[in-house]
Fold this sequence. Notes:
homodimer, MgtE N-terminal fold, CBS-domain
Amino acid sequence: MEEREFFELITDLLAANKLPLLRKLLEESNVVDIAVAASNLTTEQLLRVFRILPKDISSSVFSYLDPDDQTRLVESITDKELEALIDEMYIDDTVDFLEEVPANIVRRVLARADSQTRSIINRFLNYPEDSAGSIMTIEMVELHDHYTAKRAIEYIRETGCDKETVYTCFVIDAQRHLIGSVDLKDLLFCKESETVGDIMDNERALISVTTTDDREEVAEIARKYDLLSVPVVDNENRLVGIITIDDIIDVMEEAATEDIEKMHMLLPSEDDYLKTGVFTLVKNRIVWLLVLMVSATFTSQIITGFEDKLAAIAGLTASIPMLTGTGGNAGNQVSSLIIRGIALGKIGITDYFKVLWKEIRVAVICGGALAVANLGRMFLVRLVTGGEVATSVFIVTSLAMMLSVIAAKAIGCSLPIIAKLLKADPAVMSGPMLATLVDIITLLIYFGLANVMLVNV
Amino acid sequence: MEEREFFELITDLLAANKLPLLRKLLEESNVVDIAVAASNLTTEQLLRVFRILPKDISSSVFSYLDPDDQTRLVESITDKELEALIDEMYIDDTVDFLEEVPANIVRRVLARADSQTRSIINRFLNYPEDSAGSIMTIEMVELHDHYTAKRAIEYIRETGCDKETVYTCFVIDAQRHLIGSVDLKDLLFCKESETVGDIMDNERALISVTTTDDREEVAEIARKYDLLSVPVVDNENRLVGIITIDDIIDVMEEAATEDIEKMHMLLPSEDDYLKTGVFTLVKNRIVWLLVLMVSATFTSQIITGFEDKLAAIAGLTASIPMLTGTGGNAGNQVSSLIIRGIALGKIGITDYFKVLWKEIRVAVICGGALAVANLGRMFLVRLVTGGEVATSVFIVTSLAMMLSVIAAKAIGCSLPIIAKLLKADPAVMSGPMLATLVDIITLLIYFGLANVMLVNV
């Protein structure tokens, strides 16, 4: 069924008050589809849908709603319903929701949560925004190494029902230290009498992170090791939570989006474009636009200092945008590759000289080819338009293009790695800085060559 | 243990010929770490490591090796070992490996596979490169709706051992039509006597893809619905395979990388930067550099046509890079957001007018702020350097900046959506095209204003 049809079916059934039929339809539908449809319902309709659903489904739908819809729903439900909702939701979904909604909603939710839940939520809300702690959940299965496989499966059956995942279980000792992990699959396929200790992955194979680790690093680890969930430990290696693959995927997509934003001179934002207001968009953009515009004072001054010669020699000015454009493109090509390589953990600081040497060779070939093509292009244009630009200007332009491509490639591969070395963000430091630097260097090369080679014109 | 230490421990144990100890170490280690270490071993060392490992671990390590290392290992092992390896590996890993290695290796592998495996591999190798079929596996658990939960779990225990995942099982009818899916979790938590048909997600909640669907769409669906595996059906809705989350994550990362490459005027490449040769890098870059350089003929011609005025009026030329730079930045900011929004399925063609209206408002504010800042900047520079540029030139420059930012934002949000409408790639069409278009329009605005407003100078 199409999104639109599904939405209309829901509103029709609501209008006709055919609630048992609606309930059946929704119970059989995917919770994500219900959440998508819900965002187009009126608050009154949304409330009715929420109330006819069984608690487990309604809480699941709730966790997929946009913050706006979560807010209007929570504003409409009774305290008792709110209590039941918090009780049913996974802690990490509750925390996600609380991080996005207005403060009065947060206060009301905390007031209705039992004291244990409240203290857990408060702890989670205090983890730094980009930390592993902020995206973990505490609803995991904990086993002991002396359990037999049979006992472990029974234990999972008894306690696993409200856990976020049961497919990877973590093994702890009496002091809650993480000592291993075991897949449900392995518990099913081994002999019933084998112990968890026998079949678990022990410390050497076990991958874990700490609450303060950066969540992008966690995502990187999960990707590298193909993990369905990552255990989170405190400084004494005691298990405090797990991060599940669905949250890891969100972190990956957000990290890629953030890098793209930074590379394109935007302040990163977690909000969806369509839901972001005009002033927030302006705020995210104006900073870099202003910085770069002001830093263009350098290029303006360089040109001003050369104004007489530009006025005297026909054809010099015309190539300025082409030269800065080509230099910028050449630099961007390599910086984007290096930034992405660093983000995915495939390029490190120690690779610098290897990268630089590679780029210089690439640049010489690319720059040479461009210079030759440019010579041809300029002769052709002169032939067609009958212009009067001197051949020596063509040579200066082509030579400048080649040198500026080489400089741009060298800068483009150096900036992200220098940023990484300085523990700055490669995407921020190289995207915006690159543009200005390459412009300046390109103009200096161009005018320098013109000064030397065109003195007698 | 650090990567380096782990590698040295392996080579030390090999040198001392302490094979039982090495075997124990490796058995307790993570297969991904072994694969990373293996790429630095000599072929002779690699072969020894491969041979002392139990078959299930060695085949798992093999699937994580780089194609280069897979090739040199396969070239060294006996036919019998190769046969055992193929037998142990998952089909999708075998196909991944065969897609990357030289043809003689492919021939040898196919010759050693049994006829059924060979025909499956051949079928997989024939799926289009970016299709769902090319990344699926056929090692899934298939249940029937009349099975009780008890019977289903027994069936999984009996047959699931060599399946790629048992956590989501798919339900088929007698004609292999996909009729539902059931999580192992639900089988564990329900009554033993309930049937699979009772507890499965039925067709309405079930998400599936076909073999020819684009794999990026599959990744998008898995992300949206938080799926651990996606069932793949043929045109008659018969189950032919599944795609597991680890492969989906790889597709997501590759898709983001590809978009970044295309936005930065590179031909997309699947190879790691550090492993790509200089000539391949040149080939991936030179195309767009040439196209854009040649298309800069337009900007050159525009400037040439205006050369007399540029020579006559002090201060006009100096602002050209600043204006094209600011326009380019402003356009890039919005196009990158829209391209990413389209890639993540958050912005569609029908949102166009909403986006355009939003961008025009953002552009007026940003452009206005930039124009004012630029006026201030130019006055300040004149004050400090004692230049002789006329105030009217400042006004023309600032006005041109504002208009060019508005044009750049409008073009930047339109190009990706037009590309989507024409079923072209938003990232390719807008990244490279945007730069040239914005340059041209900025210069036309600038010189147009100068012509009208500076006639009497």
